[in-house]
Amino acid sequence: MKDIAFSREQKERMVSKIKTYFSDELQQDIGGFEAEFLIDFLSKELGPHFYNRGLLDAQQVLNEKMDEVGYVLQELEQPEGY
Q1: Which pLDDT tens digit goes with each residue over 32-45?
Q2: InterPro entries annotated for this entry (predicted)?
């Protein structure tokens, strides 16, 4: 898996959310540089866990849909008269 990359706009929104969280919940100010560093750390260290969970969830949905397709195909089968 390649490193997770975000657009500049996405990163700016994340920095804003982290700064707000630190201020509101922890009563601490955090600078933009520190917030970006935290994002990079979390992306590297925790990102793969969330990514893998997303893949597992997608695989489960896909399997369910493929089962549905299998049932639909069975319903379309025509009786064979011998």
Answers
A1: 999 999 999 999 89
A2: DUF2164
Chain segment 7-40, per-residue pLDDT in tens: 999 999 999 999 999 999 999 999 999 999 999 9
> Helix (H) and strand (E) counts for the chain?
3, 0
**Does pTM top 0.90 for this prediction?**
no
Tokens representing 50 are 């969330």
The answer to whether 18 and 30 have CB atoms below 8 angstroms apart is yes
CA 63/CA 67 separation, integer angstroms: 6
